[in-house]
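Quick one:
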Amino acid sequence: MSSNPFRPPFALQPAQLHWRDDNAPEAVDYGDVYFSREDGRRETEHVFLAGNHLASRWHDWHQARPFVIGETGFGSGLNVLCAAHDFLARAPDDTRLHVVSTEQHPFTREDLTRALRHHEDFADLVRALVDQWPPALRGIHRVVLHERITLDLHFGDAAESLEQLEGRVDAWFLDGFAPSKNPDMWSERLFAALAGASREGTTFATFTCAGVVKRGLRQAGFEIRKMPGFGRKREMLGGHMPTPPPMHPRQQTRRRLTPWHIDEAPRPAGGDDHIAVIGAGIAGTSLAHALARRGRRVTLIDPNPPGSGASGNRQGALYIRPAAEVNDQSRFYLAALEYTQRFLHRIDPEHALWHPTGVLQLATSDREAARQRRCLEHWQLPEGVVRGVSRDEAGRIAGQTLAEGVRHGLYYAGAGWVRPDRLCAQLADTPGITPHLAALETIHQEDTRHVLTLSDGTCLKADHVVLACAEGARRLSTSEFLPLQAVRGQVSHYRLDETALSLSPRCVVCAGGYAPPAWDGVQSLGASFSPNDCDLSLRDEDDAFNLGELDRTLPELARALHNAPALPSRSGLRCASPDKSPYAGGVPQVEYWRKAYAGLGFDATRVPDVPGRYQKGLWVSLAHGSRGLVSAPLIAELLASRICEEPLPLPESLVDHLNPGRRLIRAIVRREMPAD
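Output:
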């Protein structure tokens, strides 16, 4: 079996349920119940909450990082919701809870609603879960149950998911189906993964006393004991991890292959730490919001108000273009699109900032149509995420006649378009964020803090600094090793009369450019693409280019716009990386890396077993390119989780893919950066 939990098919089989008369679900495929027939809630409280001594632990919890629960078998979510409800009742008001839960066969939204509808005392938690419930898509899905409670749903095989977990757990809920019903889950591999994700003193509790479970936990290093069970079950198991293994076997393999991705001592942010975020576009405001939501003190530094640069367009599309073959870049963007849709639903339920109209990605050639079909075949994604559509169906979705050259389409029903300027402004207005209108001129480290000199003469000190200033990062020596490319883009705008307005699409239509539904009587078209061009002067030829791209998909609208009043266009600079993936993570100590990994320039297969060293408290969120509206919110969660010592919302393989050090290693391998 592959150890990669992101292998096709990405669509998972939802739980097949049988409902008893009392509306309690049973798993058809496993012949087992999701919770006790006697009282599921009391069983959860006895086995998992009391079995892990959570009441007293939460009462005395005063750490800046969250308390972390890990669970095998999310099921109906009853365990997680009971724990969340109890945490809010018992833990200090300034503490947070983080839950990591695996599930191979997720409920449908309808079944989840039915299973949880009777729990009125935590109805708000149920509503938050149901509203953000993800599709049955293999991977990690982050859900915010409460401002103090984060839930990461790891859909897929439990052992595979936990092997890829970037984070440590304080208490385990081991709640898969009984070993006799589901023996594949209770494997040596799972127990090793549990140990590898545990801290010293991590506890566990489980309803079962089966021999395979006792032997597996002991072999993995847990100390176990029998405890009184619930209801008709006489006994259950509990215990703790006295000394976790130094490294999970998968991490040992990872270190041998890519040791530079291992940071021996990342410094988490304390509750009183000051964090400076440089840049008030979508990358910077998303991150400032994520940090402030965790109670951190943030200064947002930019010479212009939020959303003034490339993030200041009237309308922006939530658009991705997965590769035909599964690769890390497309895996990341798929996860980012799903997260951003949930994020926008949560912060803007009234759709003032965004509109989930759907997105049509059209193929205007036989070659592109074949590529789209290969993509669907290779990825095998849930239809609720993306589905293939014929030319005729695409026209019905768009509500318009499409060009004759359109051959096929991909339809993302949950996507849509965003008001980037307003989104940035709202994120920057989160309590705990202090805006500072100035440019960062210099940055240097003084003891354990960073000293920032600003263009208005201000000198600030920060415990952590995140560079999210796109092209502006190229001027700073701290990121000079990162190749960054400026890409100029121009968006065109036209005032529509009643006839032209009827020709605007009902959803976002993308091909070589994009056309969202008209907003406030104005049709936007974007965007031209001019690499290594920093001239922001408006150009007639770029407007002509945008109209030409529209003519390849919506020719009737294109003809109408030729006669429509043109409004001022808008140009901006995107910042891209050579491999088209963002940079997200810590900033390497460049000179150390040059020397430690110099041998890779002579033989790239002989990897020294030397972990990477990073500049403490210095991070980047850069090179989002033209898809920053999709990528920035998830990367904000990634960095905020890393800074605040939480489990990460991406598997370790994708965290490594985004690591800024990847370009430094590439330069060393190609001998573009000598060791002396």
